[in-house]
Structure formats: structure tokens, C-alpha cells
Request: fold
Amino acid sequence: MGQLTLKDIVKRFGAIEVVKSVSLDVNEGEFIVFVGPSGCGKSTLLRMIAGLEHTTSGDIVIDGKRVNDLAPVKRGIAMVFQSYALYPHMSVFENIAFPLRVEKAPEASIREKVEAAAKILHLDQRLEQKPGMLSGGQRQRVAIGRAIVREPEIFLFDEPLSNLDAALRADMRIELTRLHKQLGATMIYVTHDQVEAMTMADRIVVLHAGYISQVGPPLELYHKPQNTFVAGFIGNPRMNMLPVTCTGVTDQGVEVDFNGQTLLIPVAGRDGIVGSALSLGIRPEHIEIGPGEAVMTITPTVVERLGQQTIGYAALDGQDENFCLVLPGSRGIAEEQPLQVSFSTADCHLFDAGGQALERQVDLAAMSLPPVAVPA
Amino acid sequence: MALFRNDDTPMIDRYRWWEIIGIYAGIFVFLFFMLSPFIEGFLVSLKPLSQLFSTPYSFWPENGSFKAYFTMWESVPGFARYIFNSFLISTIATVIVLLLVVPAAYAFARFSFRGMGLVLAAFLAVSMFSGAVLLIPLFRLMRTLGMLNTYWAMIVPGAAFLIPAAIWLLRTYMMRIPKELNEAAYMDGASQFYTFRRVILPIARPGIIVVAIMTFIGAYSQQFVFALTFNSKTEYMPLPIGLFAYFGKQEVIWNELMAASFVGIAPALILIFFLQRYLVGGLTAGAVKQ
Reply:
């Protein structure tokens, strides 16, 4: 139980189309993250699944049943709001018990279920307090407690961590992942934070201007973005885009001309691209100092030293965006000093003029290393 | 200056000595303007009647006493009844107003429906007319409904004129209750009425108490016109009309009149004083992240 299907979901507010034909299958027990910039329709999509908004057209199907016209409770869904939405006049106990009181559950079973939920969320000591006395993280846990006490098949989270500070957010991320394993329920999570998406999701749904841009496991999105939007959105700092010209297509890949160098990029070729302008994508973390397969000279204008890594930004001729490179550790690069950098063609992405990726020939299975067996 | 300024006072709250004097002088002038009738009234109630007409007039009572506060009950035996009437009329009017206004304000705050702006503007327009302007049509209405010379003649118009302000006041308060609370309750399966009763009403309590106090004071002070016009029965008279009883054929018993005025206000003052304790703010703290 807990299988969700979206079929051609469209949502219009007046003349504005916020969600444009979204179709998606969510498997039972999956942790799905909707991610995208502000205004991409991710929250609207979640609110439609929740039953807070009507769909303009399309079907929402849960466990084989069309639920478009059902109230949230009948859908077997619970939702955690970004703002927590706790009832300020009730104790933590009553807040968590609220859904059970609504369905008029017997007092003994309410007590049992609330205490079980409080135990999972480490709120046992706080049950008699009012929300106003709790910290942000505790309030968020109360909101989650109110959702889990009803034992729904699908949990919806609307940017639940965005009001917390960075350290607490990292803690809650781990806690939510643990909770997902413990409950085994389907979870749909909306965020604009790609770290949350990458760390928690089984699959990420990248939304862009009302469309699904790409769906896939986190590492697939990182290694094989299907278009320039996903390539730019996943990964931090953003992927660098460099203009190149296609000079030939072979079985091994696509040959491009990059600043007078001919590079063979291992991607699947396509008919009719020879001679056309392409975008070469290279992630900042794949750039190294010194000579290599593809070489370029840049002059960093800003250098950020984080200790763990050093980030340099350089302006390129004829491009609005800074070229960015990330070097491990505290590397000795200086501002305003020309620097020879290089990258490997195996790390390159190629996108056509429409922004669609030419598929990289990478083995994702080999990318994610098997767990290392520790000798006893 | 230690009273006003010490090391713990934030910079923005620190003033020079002449600024503080200016502030207090301003407060004094303002309060004196507002309170001088009350002060004079109270002093008059302490004076013997003969001293009131002496020349030169002395502001401070000589051999003042609270005697008028005892004799007033004998001069006008029905006075306790008038206080009771005032209380009864104001209380029933307040209850009626609250019963109507709380759901109405919630609806205006939460739902958007066709003609909402128009209705709200109409409420505002109604409160631009004082009751006195509409006395003649109201009189005809009361007569048709057979309400003349009953308590209802004072309760119904009193409540009607207090409703618009109460709706506006409470609507503003309820709009500050986060909408997510409704959505969360809806997600948890609560019906509109359940949410209203279990979530909205408790959170809106401070606002409702403010509206109740405002309405009660309004009803208590606005009875005069309606009572004078729509009621001629002595036993239904409220306090402001009852005070006329101290106006004799030959003379006005000023000191007892003033004493009666203060005695009449006292119960309302005491009631409000106690209700004020329930005006605890910050009840929404912790509901949502601000």
C-alpha cells in the first residue's frame, strides 16, 4: 500500500498554468524528492496530492483508486507543513493526538499511539509543554508526530527543514532518513535545497517551469543530467558551460573543437550535429591544475578558501557566467594570476543547441562503489 | 534620573532630562483634559449641596464627606433597579453581538466570496450613522414589531449599531491566525465546524474578549438615546435615564447626581478590570514560524 500515480496533472490559477502535464509513478515505500527553483510548481503539485488544491485536469491515483475528489484523510495521506502549523493552545500531547481525537478514537488507544510516536521522535519529556516553549527542531518533530500518529500510507513534506538553522537541518535530515527506514511508508518531500534532495531521496524529481525536467536516483542526475537545466541545478557550484563546435561523430564519441583543441568526448553521437554549436559541460570539481586532456588558461578574479576546498571564479571572454573551479584542500591559487587548468574528456557533458544532453557513456553501477568489506 | 535611565536601558529608549520632562508634561496635559470632568464630578459628589452655589466657588471641598453616596439611595429609591437594567441590557446586547459577530468575522477573515467587499463596506457605512439620525424610522419599526416599552427596544438597536465595529475588529484579529492551521486540521480530517470550535475559537479568545469589552462599554454608554425614545416605563429605565430622577421640580441634587453617576459606572469598571486579566497576548506563539 502507498503506491501513487500522477497522470497528466495540470493546474491553472486563472490564466497562469503552474503545473503543465505532469505524469509520475511513485513506488510503495519510496522516498521521492521534488526539487526545483521557486515557482516551478513543486509545492502546488504537493498540495494537489494532499487534497488541498483541486487539479485542473489529470488523475491522482493511490493504490489503483482515483482520489481526485476525496478528502485528504480518505486518501490515506498526512502532511507536514513548512511552517509546522501547530495548534498553539494545545499541549504537545494534544497536538499529536489531534487527528485521533477527530476520528474519535478511544482514550486508551490515543494515549498508546501518541506515546509511541513521541518515543520515536524523542518527545517523551515534552508532552505536557505548549509549542511556544519548544525549539524549532522540536516543533518540527511535533508536526511530524501529528503526521505519523495516523499511520498514513503516504507522507507529504513541504520544505519541512527550511526554517531550521544549518546544523539542525543536518540532524533532522538524518532523523527523517531514519524515520523513513523505520516506518517503511512512501514519502514525498518538497525542497529547493539540493543537498536535502541528494542525501535523502531514492529518486529525485526535478521540476522546471511546471514540467518534470528529469526523474532519477541522485547519482544518475549528477552523472547523467538529461538537459542543461538539471546539469546546472544539481551540483554545487554549478556546472561550467563552454561553447564548442562539433567536428565529427565516431563510435567512441563526439569530436569537438574547443579553443583549437580537438577533444573526443565519450557520448552517444547523433545524426546531423556535425558542424553545429554545442555546449560542453564540466563540473568545477573535475578541473585540475596543470596540463591534461583539455587545457585552458584562466585568471581567477575571486578565490574562496574553505579549508576543505578552494573555489576559484574567473571571467571568460564572451560569457556572462563565471568559470568556476573547485580544488581539494587549501591550494595555492592566487587572484589575478593566470593559471593553466585542465580537465579530462571522460568527465565532460555535451548538450545540443536545445539544451538536451547527448547521453554519456558512463557506467553508473561502476560509479557507485560496492561497500568495502572490512577484514575481521 | 535613575528611575528612567540606567545601564540596562537600550540606547533607543534613552532620553535627555528635558525630553523626559516634555513627555510627562504632554501626558499630564492630555490626561487632565480627559479626566478633569471626572475629577470635578467626584469633588462635587463630596461637597454639601449648599457649597455648590457659593461664591467665590471653591474647587476643593470644605468639610467634604461621602454623605451623598448614602442619601442618593433614599432620594431615588429605584436607583439600584436602574443599574440592574443597564447591566441587563448591556449584557444581553453583548451576548447577541458576540453570537452573531464571531462566526461572521471568521467567515469574513477566512473565506472569500462574491460581494464580500461590498458587505464589509456596507457595515462601515452603517456605523457612520449614529442611532440618533435613524430614530424616527427605528421608532416606526419598533412600534410595528411591538417592541416599544420593552427591554428589547433598547437591546436590539443597541446591538445592531455595535455589530459593524465588532466585525471589523474581530476580522482583523482572525486574519492574523495562520491559514496553515486550517489546512493542517483539514489534512487531519477535521470538519470546518470542528476546526472552528477546537482550533480557531481558542486562539481567537483574546480578540473575542476585546470585542466583548468594547461591545459592553459601547452598549453601556449608548443606551441613552434609545432608552429615552423607545421606552417610557420607569421599571425598564437604564442608568442614564434614571439619573434624571435627581432633577427635581425646583432644584437639581447635584452632589447626589454625581455620586449616582460614579456608583453607576462602578460595576462596569469592576467587571472590565477583571476581564482584562484574560487579555493575554501572544497566544499564537509557536503556531508557525514567523
